[in-house]
Amino acid sequence: MEPTLQTQLTHPAMPPPIPWWPPAPGWWLLVIGVLLIALLLPWLLRYARRRQRRQQRRSWRVMADVPTDLPDALWLAAINTRIKQLLIQRGDVAATRLFGEAWLDYLCSRYPGTERQALQPLAADLYRPQVELSQAQRQALLAELRRWVRHHDV
Known about the structure:
By secondary structure, this protein is mainly α.
């Protein structure tokens, strides 16, 4: 091309600047989504907290119906029966047939932070005719079983 012809060409015009209003549809969707989350979040948090409290109350009530004045052997049998009833309600019938160390292994394998020593009376002492548990052992067993129940959402 000759330089004179090139100078005679008109250059393309710059497009007008993009306006900031109205925003693109994606921004509208984002704003609506954020507003929905902001409106639903308090309700969801309240629902989660209520569910957690309900679960905690249930885990405390699981063992509350077992009388504390029972002899140790009967108390252990009642606790063991209550845990197995909860497993049946949950649909885990096969676990209810376990006893002794196999039962203790099942309980410990289903909850990673289990204190095996606290649950030991359910395996070793459950079938002995003469069982003597201290009040501290009873409390430790109940505390560990409550944690186990809370972990499993039974």
